Amino acid sequence: MFAVHLLSFYFSKLKEDQIAKVDRFLYAMRLSDDQLLDIAARFRAEMEKGLSSESCATAAVKMLPTHVRSTPDGSEKGEFLALDVGGSKFKVLQVKVSDAGKRTVEMDSITYPTPEEIRSGKGTDLFDHVAESLKDFMQRKHINQRKQPLGITFSFPCRQSKLDEGVLLSWSKNFKARGVRGTDVVELLREAIDRLGGVDVDVLALVNDTVGTMMTCGYDDQNCEVGVIVGTGTNACYMEEMRHIDLVEGDEGRMCINTEWGAFGDDGSLDDFITDFDREIDAASINPGQQLFEKMISGLYMGELVRLILLKMTKKGLLFNSQASDALRTKGKFETKYVCAIEKYKEGLSNTKEILTSLGLDPSEQDCIAVQHVCTIVSFRSANLCAAALAAILTRIRENKRLKVLRTTVGVDGTVYRTHPQYAKRLHKVARRLVPDCHVRFLLSECGSGKGAAMVTAVAQRLVSQHRQIAETLAPLRLSRQQLRDVRDKMRVELERGLRRDTHHTASVKMLPTYVYRTPNGTERGKFLALDLGGTNFRVLVVKIRSGLRRSVRMYNKIYAIPLEIMQGTGEELFDHIVQCISDFLDYMGMKNSRLPLGFTFSFPCRQAGIDKGTLVSWTKGFKATYCEGNDVVDMLREAVKRRNEFDLDIVAVVNDTVGTMMTCAYEDPNCEIGLIAGTGSNVCYMEEMKNIEMVDGDEGRMCVNTEWGGFGENGCIEDIRTKFDREVDEGSLNVGKQKFEKMTSGMYLGEVVRQILIDLTRRGLLFRGRITERLKTRGIFETKFLSQIESDRLALLQVRAILQQLGLDSTCDDSIVVKEVCGTVSRRAAQICGAGMAAVVDKIRENRGLDNLDITVGVDGTLYKLHPHFSTSLRETVQELAPRCSVTFVLSEDGSGKGAALITAVARGLHTQA
Description:
The protein contains 30 helices and 26 strands.
């Protein structure tokens, strides 16, 4: 028993001694976590250089755009052909993808040899050989009856400007075919197919084997956004934000980047980590000074690296009694597969002895232990270096997404990763240790290259189909110039009909006289009280207007809430609440005994018989107070003041918010004779010639007309541009069949139009993986403010996804792009038809005045115009195009409603005094 323990102790001590000896000899290859994090940081810097247009030409890590913009979403289906070209043999595959019930992939393939004389001959011969093999496969499988979509895995560095193009940068893996470098390999294949004839294929995609690996794993795990190869060569790809890829136009979405990380260090950035053994490997390679990182990692060099170390140790008397064999001196004799066999858990030492003996060596037990440890250090360094670069990629993805913790999947392939008994476990462990804030799943690719090419082709075909269907869905909302001209002309007709006595009652644009006869001229002065009611908040203001050289307007106000029960109670309760707010404000200002002239901004459709008379036509904006419609709101306010019996009001004018906006801007710009509201609602007013207003007596001068253009189309005149989505919004509204123009242009409805489109696209499987959430079914959930946020040029898709997630919509990057496109289409249409209506108004004013050209200013207010990033631009461009003889300036109103009411009161009081 003692002898057994003694033998065990002796063997353990022997092993420790041998391991220590090797560790001392290869100390430079044993890397600490701090060193690996340093390497990761250097790789991050190289990634930045490769992505930048300024430095990519000299960057060692080329960061090649692949034009693969999406990973599989599971809805791909169809039959595809794939070519896998990248070694002494290549495959032709048929891949059948199905999503009927459960997602399945069926593959059938034939492997064809690529003789050395083909690999080293003329490029045309190489591609003729590939085309002939493709034809043979199609004939054998009886699939040459119809055009087949084809994807190519081409495992050599290519620069791509689109998915179906790839200019070869350099050959590797013993390929040297002449006349191919600098040429589009897809075009070379197409030409070979044309020369051969009898092959009907549509080449849709060219991908790298790393991309193929990511796409294959992405079909099984939709979180997969990184692909890694550790085999004969090594490389990685990942999904990068488009806004960071300088070499490709566009900022929306993501694109797969082929890092070509094998060249990391070619510029000297890894010199302090490269050992003498690495330099010897490099010097003896066919491409000295190139692919230095790959030469420290990949299977093509791992065995040779071990051989050089063993030979050096033998010469120093550390192995084999200083006796090297011819095989140990011969390049390439120690294969990487030997490293895998030597590091096997149980048979490792016996395998070591067998392999060394086959190489003509006579190893002792100590030699076998030392050789096994050399293999461990070399393969472990490989895994460490791979983990460091992968950690850099994972950190970049996490920071791109602005996440504290990233959950993602890495698809991996390659003979070293697959066959080395310890490699995968080491790589996983080290990578996770280097990036604790990234929770990574590693997924082994099955048939990665060929299946991956087919998946890229399937995704490309899916995206083409989806884009076509989405374009067809949005086409009715994308109005042509002729359609906008028709809107302008029909609006003009309705403006005229609303002004005439005989057609006024049937006109959809009501053209309500406001009894405002002029805009401010700068002589207005005094102190005025103003009320502003147009939503859930009610404002009371004191406005002080100073005239003369130092004109100014100063305002003091308080805002009061209108509770829902008051909005939807009785009219008496509503106006009593308004008077209570006025009383509180007068107390606050110490003005209870002052009787100031008052202007009342009442932002609901009213029919006026005078400037201080306004009969409510209908409530909007959620108000439903009873016994108000058909009654004069000024009289109702006066009655409420009498009931309270605390103060008196001198009510001079009741005005619409649109008129208030025009008057506010006209005080600053005398050329302003139009008011536009583009916010929750939509409306326009303008100064019309009295002779054209048949509903009011008198032919002299002008009067402001409140068009109430939101009702345009109620007579069916714009049905040709209304879509099924507009009809769905209308049918779900409180006033079905009313305010049709407003429902296409105003903030109250645009979000709902978008929601209806999103439901339609989701139901057809074009969005959100076909899953309609309960939130998406909820009316009003998609607020118009989301359009402004989503369409912001400063907003990355990441933030768009965050907005959608707030709405319970789990969107992909592709979904976010589609949602942004939908929002842009809906808001652009709103701005354009609003602009077409404005063109009708300004052209009418020009013709009224008999002018060849009109210079005029439009005062504008409303959240849509103010906050949406593109609405105002589209509106102005449309007016300019549809009314070319009018020079129209748009001025944003500040505090339009309250200030405007005071100015109207001042103008009205001035006119009354003159009379």
